[in-house]
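Fold it.
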Amino acid sequence: MIDPRDENLIGLLRLNARESLASLARKLNLSRSTVQDRLARLEKSGIIKGYRVDLSDEAGKRRIRSFATISVAPQNTAIIAAELKTFAAIDAVHTVSGKFDILVEIGSQTTEEMDRALDRIGEIPGVLKTESSIILSTKFQR
């Protein structure tokens, strides 16, 4: 279970996952060992699944990003989602309601790499239809 101190710790880690334990402890008014124990418990319980790298705006501009929507045969959703997880170019896979069943976020260095990723998606057995949109700019992100 998560208590308010865990919530505060998670909030600080969302701002900077590389912040030192000593700095976190000062901000939370807890001992370093208490913060370390809380962090270990959150990781062991699976509440914290991992850490990630957020690219700077400049680095992100060098990546071509797109969203692809995928229509699949209903019995194939889990299998297709598992297959999509193996694609290095895919950053996220979401199941969605509406006209399509799956929404994927794709990042690549070149349009050719993006094209290959989209072609591979279309070749997965059970994929009925795809539609993709290249992201031209991001006005804001939270």
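Residues 57-134 form a domain with the Alpha-Beta Plaits fold (CATH 3.30.70.920).
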